[in-house]
């Protein structure tokens, strides 16, 4: 498997119809080809029902979109970290703005993910949440102002002060945590701007998933990430 590294382009497939089932596999193979051609790490977070089929189809890192802190046994409907590992994921998103967690649940889920060796990306909506998240010790924190998610208006270019302040806060509290940014990232220039602000990659979704030519978009992003 291609190793998880930075700069990182992490594509969240969300629950878009364009990334359902075999369409998810198709997008994953496009991402794998671009990653191999450019040497830039591209990872995917498919829908839970597609996690196994995507992971077994490609050699790029695959993340779960969420995990819960339940342990094997009772927990109907929960996402078990052991099951995510078994499906082939190497990491998980936590606290996405579309699936926010209470701090106590976030910490518990993070600890369960660490128990089985999953890499963790905590999503945050502002500097204060990023600071609290950094204290928990995840591998990555992705700051995403929710008002820009899915808009095509990149946080890295329209709210650079949010990104730089968040990076500074994360580094002050826990310099081991790798900062990412997301929301509105849709082209290579957005990725380049994010890296210049001190992040080590981006988390995005619709900019690739809903693009008419996702391979072209990913190549543009990867080239600007070098």
What does this structure look like?
The protein is α/β, with parallel strands linked by helices and 226 residues long. The chain has one domain (8-225): Aldolase class I (TIM Barrel). The protein is built from ten helices and eight strands. The protein has helices at 22-38, 51-57, 81-87, 103-115, 127-136, 155-158, 160-173, 188-196, 206-209, 214-225; strands spanning 8-12, 41-45, 63-64, 91-94, 119-124, 140-143, 178-182, 201-204. α1 (22-38) runs parallel beside α10 and α5 packs parallel to α7 (160-173). The longest helix is centred in the N-terminal third of the chain and has 17 residues, at 22-38. It is globular, with a radius of gyration of 16 Å. It starts with 7 loop residues before the first strand and ends with a helix. The relative contact order is 0.16. The model has no long low-confidence stretch (mean pLDDT 92).
SSE inventory with pairings:
Elements: E1 8-12, H1 22-38, E2 41-45, H2 51-57, E3 63-64, H3 81-87, E4 91-94, H4 103-115, E5 119-124, H5 127-136, E6 140-143, H6 155-158, H7 160-173, E7 178-182, H8 188-196, E8 201-204, H9 206-209, H10 214-225
Parallel strand pairs: 1-2, 1-8, 3-4, 4-5, 5-6, 6-7, 7-8
């Amino acid at each position: 498997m291609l190793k998880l590294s930075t700069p990182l382009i992490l594509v969240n497939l969300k629950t878009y119809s364009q990334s359902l089932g075999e369409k998810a596999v198709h997008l994953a193979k496009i991402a794998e080809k671009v990653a191999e051609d450019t040497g830039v790490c591209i990872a995917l977070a498919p829908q839970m029902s597609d996690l196994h089929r995507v992971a077994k189809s490609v050699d790029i890192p695959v993340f779960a979109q969420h995990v819960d802190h339940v342990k094997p046994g009772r927990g109907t409907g929960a996402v078990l970290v052991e099951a995510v590992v078994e499906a082939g994921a190497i990491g998980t998103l936590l606290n996405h703005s579309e699936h926010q967690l209470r701090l106590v649940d976030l910490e518990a889920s993070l600890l369960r993910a660490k128990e089985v060796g999953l890499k963790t990306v905590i999503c945050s909506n502002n500097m204060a949440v990023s600071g609290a998240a950094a204290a928990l010790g995840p591998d990555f924190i992705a700051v995403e102002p929710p008002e820009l998610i899915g808009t095509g208006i990149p946080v890295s270019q329209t709210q650079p002060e949010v990104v730089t302040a968040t990076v500074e806060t994360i580094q002050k509290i826990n310099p081991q945590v790798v900062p990412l940014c997301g929301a509105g990232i849709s082209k290579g220039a957005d990725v380049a701007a994010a890296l210049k602000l001190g992040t080590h990659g981006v988390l995005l979704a619709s900019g690739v998933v809903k693009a008419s030519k996702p391979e072209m978009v990913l190549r543009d992003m990867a080239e600007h990430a070098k």
